[in-house]
Structures are given as structure tokens and as C-alpha cells.
Amino acid sequence: MKPSVVRAIYFSPTGTARSGAAAIAKALDENAEEIDVTVDGKMPDRISFAKDELIVFGAPVYGGRLYHGVVKRFQQFTGHKTPCIVTVTYGNRDYDDALLELKDLAEALGFVPVAAAALIGQHTYGQIQVGRPNEQDIEEDQAFAEKVKALLNQDTWSGIQVPGNYPYKEGGQGGKFRPQTTDACIKCGVCVRECPEGAIDPEDPAKIDGEKCIACFRCIKKCPIGAKNPDTPEYLAFAEGFTKRLAARKENQYFLLEGKA
Ligand SMILES: Cc1cc2nc3c(=O)[nH]c(=O)nc-3n(C[C@H](O)[C@H](O)[C@H](O)COP(=O)(O)O)c2cc1C
Ligand code: SF4
Ligand code: SF4
């Protein structure tokens, strides 16, 4: 089967989960479309998908699980036996039960997971696997997509197995660090619009609602003049130790029907 349309659907505050999902989608079809559900409340054009389409889901791992806001966002989509590839991107610690959770979620929504991947992305915190996914990672994603293409030509492609346990471990929450805003802020409103959870005060972008903020650090990445940073003493101390602890490089893992690719 050649899918009529390939779409990457992702939640990706700092862009790494998007990179993997979009690279896989594009390798499957150079005209692949993207549906970005990072910012809450933006309704996508399409929410229901047919059997001849193909979806590549992408999400970051938060505490070994899917961020609960990802589950909420993905739940607006429905498949009708629509094949999908499930991908999670994690910061070189572990993905624990997140890939299993995404596979289960996709199935519950009417999709048929035909392949899966646990990909490495630069960690939101510290300096861990900086720049990943890099060129080599993207090439691996593309090679995986070629294998999926061959698989789609087979008659049956349900039943992939991915690592993870039941019950899923505790996790899926945001982090505890809160971005700082310097006097350089020009109140351009970029961070206000880009915050996934609407946590930044439009009148005063230095004010962040601590309850709503999930410490995804998207605002730090998106600020055009570098007026936001994570640099509290608590964060800096954590980041230093964390960077050392997670220094050893991990590899991307890909799963097809036969087992690990
Ligand atoms: C709140 C929070 C929790 C995280 N938990 C994990 C984790 O359990 N394991 C891990 O390896 N990386 C973890 N990370 C790192 C992200 O999974 C990683 O940086 C990912 O590439 C971010 O995706 P994005 O660029 O699409 O936002 C966490 C990041 C945040 C912000
Ligand atoms: S993106 Fe930067 S400059 Fe613009 S409002 Fe936010 S903190 Fe201020
Ligand atoms: S305010 Fe918090 S939730 Fe919003 S973009 Fe910044 S870190 Fe993410």
C-alpha cells in the first residue's frame, strides 16, 4: 500500500521530537504534511484519518511517560484503521514506558501502529547530547523509513512490540524550573504566543504562571533576543550534575514487526 497522504503530528516544545517525526514522514513522502499541536488550543484542520493515510506521531518523553498534555492533544484525532508510526524523543536518560504508552494511545484512537522509534534529542536541561538529532540521526530515521515503506507493501502489519511495562511508571508531568526574564525583554509577545500552556502574561512577559508552566523551555528557545534563560542557582547546580550523569551517548532504537530494526 502506498499511502495517499503522509502526515507528521507532533508536540515538540524545543523541536527535537518534530525533527525525527518530520524526517521520517518526509522520507516516506516528500510532500508529507505536518500538524503541530505544541501550542494548546490551536485546532488542526484535519482530525479524522482514513485507512489509506499514514500518520507519524512524535512526542518528547517527560518523566519516562508521555506528557499528559500530549495525551490530551492527541486524543482529538481519530483513525479508521489508519496505519501510524509512533516515535518518542528522549534526552539520553531513558524512555521507560513512553513508547508503549504512545503505541497504546494510538491503538485506542483507531490507528494501527506499524512501526515505532525511540529517538535521542538534546535534553531540555543541561548540555546533554547537544545538537541531536544531528545529520547521522536523521540518516538513521530515513533508513528506517525505507524499511517501513517495504513493510507497508505487505498484507498484514499490525502487532509491533515495544519496550515498556504495565502499569506505566509515575511521570508525564512538567518540570520544576521556571524561566527567568531579563530587562532586555522588548515585550514582542513571541513567547506569549509560543508557550504551549499559555503560562506567560501578555501584559508583562516576565510574569510566568508557575502553576501552568511545565518547564519545557520553549520560551527560552523562541525568544528572538535571548531575554529568557533558565539560570537560577538551583537550575545551574542541577544542570551541572545532570550533564555529567547523562554524558554517555545512547543510540536511536527502531522497531518493526519483526522486532528491533
Ligand atoms: C519536564 C521534562 C521531563 C523530561 N523527562 C525526561 C526523561 O524522563 N527521560 C529523558 O531521557 N529525557 C527527558 N526529558 C528530555 C526530553 O525528553 C528531551 O529533551 C526531548 O528531546 C525534548 O523534546 P522537544 O525538543 O520536542 O521538546 C525531559 C524534559 C522535560 C522538559
Ligand atoms: S520573546 Fe523575549 S523579548 Fe519577546 S516578550 Fe518574550 S521574553 Fe520578551
Ligand atoms: S513559560 Fe513554561 S510552559 Fe511556557 S514556554 Fe516557557 S517553560 Fe514552557
Task: Write a structural description.
- 28% of the residues lie in helices and 21% in strands.
- By secondary structure, it is an alpha/beta fold.
- Strands 1, 2, 4, 5, 7, 8, 11 and 12 form an eight-stranded mixed beta sheet that branches.
- A hairpin with a 2-residue loop joins strand 4 (53-62) and strand 5 (65-66).
- The radius of gyration is 18 Å and the shape is globular.
- The two termini are 20 Å apart.
- The site of flavin mononucleotide has 26 residues, from helix 1, strand 4 and strand 7.
Question: What overall form do the CA principal axes indicate?
Answer: globular
Strand content is 15-25%
Which structural class best describes the helix and strand composition? Answer: alpha/beta
Largest sheet: 8 strands, mixed
Low-confidence stretches: none
Question: What is the succession of H and E elements?
Answer: EHEEEEHEEHEHEHHEHEE
N→C terminal distance: 20 Å
Overall pLDDT level: 95
Assembly of the depicted chains = single chain
Round the Cα radius of gyration to an integer and report it: 18 Å
Number of strands: 12
The hetero compounds bound to this protein are:
flavin mononucleotide, iron/sulfur cluster
How many helices does DSSP assign?
7
The proportion of residues forming helix, as a percent range, comes to 25-40%
Compose a concise summary of this entry:
With 261 residues, this protein is an alpha/beta fold. It has helices spanning 16-28, 68-74, 98-108, 135-152, 190-194, 218-222, 233-245, and strands at 5-10, 33-36, 48-49, 53-62, 65-66, 78-79, 82-90, 111-120, 180-181, 228-229, 253-256, 259-260.
